[in-house]
Design a protein that fits this description.
37% of the residues lie in helices and 18% in strands. The chain has a single domain, classed as Glycoside hydrolase/deacetylase (TIM Barrel, Alpha-Beta Barrel). It is an alpha/beta fold. The chain has a seven-stranded parallel barrel, surrounded by six helices.
Length: 271
């Protein structure tokens, strides 16, 4: 049974990931600060918090409250910027000029940085949200643009992106540390493409199925797609969405199940 131990949340494990950076065997991250879940029940079981910072949702007050929880549980703290589209929760591609998108992303990350400075916290990583994450994962030019903005803002943060996608290559090319991400609660169409939320079977709401997918990605380096094909995948971190039904219980089952399977978890270490 997993017991919360803040001293064990951030680990320096000697294993070198396939992305070339030293990190724990697995980082269990959660998109949070989104006002849609009981985050106090979810965060004890993860090791990194991706905090919404005003694009799809998030205010200084919600950032402060989520960051306070993350500090309490010893989590790595990350920015979770998105298209500036709260009306659609950042889950549609928003046509906008590149300069405007760059400015919005920078503003969002600076907003979280201001709260983190106030609370004497360090931002360790950046992970995009929703439609922008998926769009950048499928389009190398968008991935490079985002990576450039992140590197210009803070070249020391870890850049989290879809495993096998242009996000990982773009992060490396601008000199960022990168972490390849997999998903326990989402179905895959390919190893680098999540099944659209508009299609049936996009969400994995069965806890046992989510755990099986997570362990298989970590230990066997593969994922079974929605169509039943086995595809190779190499990951450094797994995401749990806080707005998926049953997220808190799923987070507990994933953390306990991964550790029973011998997987060591920890947070992203600041540079």
């Amino acid at each position: 049974m997993f017991k919360y131990d803040p001293a064990a949340q951030k680990l320096r494990v000697g294993q070198v990931s396939y992305t070339g950076w030293r990190m724990p065997t697995l980082v269990l991250n959660c998109d949070c600060g989104e006002g849609v879940a009981d985050e106090a029940a979810i965060l004890p079981f993860v090791t990194a918090a991706n905090i919404a910072c005003g694009g799809h949702t998030g205010t200084a007050d919600t950032m402060r409250a989520t960051l306070r929880l993350a500090q309490h549980y010893g989590l790595s703290i990350g920015a979770h910027p998105s298209y500036p589209d709260p009306a659609h929760f950042g889950r549609r591609v928003l046509p906008m000029a590149e300069a405007d998108l760059r400015a919005s992303l920078l503003s969002q990350m600076r907003a979280l940085q201001a709260v983190a400075d106030e609370m004497q916290a360090t931002i360790a990583h950046v992970k995009l949200h929703g439609a922008l994450y998926n769009h950048a994962a499928a389009h190398a030019d968008v991935a490079m643009m985002v990576a450039e903005v992140v590197a210009a803002w803070n070249p020391q943060v870890m850049f989290v992106g879809m495993a096998g996608s242009p996000l990982i290559d773009a992060g490396r090319r601008v000199g960022l540390r990168v972490a390849a991400e997999g998903f326990a609660d989402r179905a895959y169409d390919r190893a680098d493409v999540l099944r659209s939320r508009n299609l049936p079977g996009a969400l994995i709401e069965d806890d046992a199925a989510a755990l099986t997918q997570a362990i298989r990605m970590v230990q066997q380096g593969e994922v079974v797609t929605y169509a039943g094909q086995v595809a190779p995948i190499h990951i450094d971190t797994i995401c749990i969405h806080s707005d998926t039904p049953g997220a808190a219980e799923r987070a507990r089952i994933l953390r306990e199940g991964l550790e029973r399977a011998g997987v060591v978890v920890g947070g992203f270490e600041p540079f």
